[in-house]
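Sync notes, pocket subgroup
Present: LS, DG
LS reminded everyone that the earlier model was apo-only. Rerun requested with zinc ion included. Inputs:
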Amino acid sequence: MGEKVNEQILTQVLAKIDALWEEELSFLQAIGCYPSTLGNEKAVQNYVAKYFQEELGLEVDKIFPDPKEIAGHPGYSPAEWSYEGRPVVVGQWKTDKPKIGKSLILQGHIDVVSPEPLCFWNYDPWDATIVGNKIYGRGMQDMKSGIAAMVFAVKAIKESGLELGADILLETVIEEECTGNGALAALERGYVADGALIPEPFGMSGLIAQVGVIWVRVRVIGAGSHVERADRAVNAIEKAYILVNALKDYEKHINAKPKHKDFEHLEHPLNVNIGLIRAGDWPSTVASECVFEARVGLYPGQDPYQIKEEVKEWLLQAAQADKWLRQSPPEITFYGFHAEGAALDRGLEIFKELEWAHKTTTGEEFEFGVTTATSDMRFYNLYYNIPATCYGPLGGNMHGADEWVDLESVKAVTKTYAAFILSWCGVHRG
Ligand SMILES: [Zn+2]
């Protein structure tokens, strides 16, 4: 692995990354200042598309996911919103010469979660503030720093005057945080390759397994009235408690069962998170409706449809124990994430090459990792037979206040990616 990479070429490219570092930081800050939450990705995607075209000379395509095209796919997650004006950006660097290596997709998600509540932040979440060796802001860790790394790995190779032995695609996708339909749309549109790397900020290790995720919405109806008649009214918030507690019991139940082998070392691999609750509008009015939404994890190999049925049954069973809920059962629906888990074989060539690239550029041992979250890597491996893994920078407070990324790790990841690309795609000499 990697032996075929000429040392002089590698040294030259790594030096180029050092030389371009200020530019890489500026790019990261530029994309970090766009508040690219769900539905607001257009402006940053236009910026990235222009950057790909003008600064990297790539052939750029914009894909607008069309639910009619992808809804029949087993990896599709039902979305309740429009895809109008929300492109996935694909930049291609095609080789004119014969293919001597393997083609590669480098993919990152441009969408970020909301920074609310803002009162907990010490930095402006959209200002990409550098303090010492850290940069703070929403999306700095997850995962705009990874995007900067993959873009500058390619830029450094291009600006070194090299020609790769196979095509390389740079992609910034939408909706990794809620459906994955952005990545799916690009694959369904025919953008495939011999391998894919995703610089998710899970650290500089090769991701071998991730859980699956589903989202559930529970709507509870009460019988509202003025609080003076509260003894006769039924408070939907109080009834929803019963079901929230039931979901937390379900979480204990699934974590007490035998674990998937890749997650055996973790005490609590499957998380159930109550992420949202909406009910009531007045302290002196009995709430007549309560809606809550939760995220439920599942193991690789489990069918999201079956888990949805199991969750539904569990909640309806809990409702049976309450007189009111028995008469007015909760409405249980699913939207957003319908994601299978994924577990990979450690013997894959992509890991061998990544190990070589990591060791060569950092001088450190290579490790494997798992995550109790999902990522877009599932699509490549599960449905398209494209070996794909995640390897990315280190940071903290992902999805929380004062999210940050370690800048040294961003540079290190840029270098590992560059070494990987040289080895995986090959380089034309002369
Ligand atoms: Zn992410």
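DG: The first strand starts at residue 59 and ends at 63.
LS: DSSP finds twelve helices and 19 strands in the chain.
Action: DG to write up.
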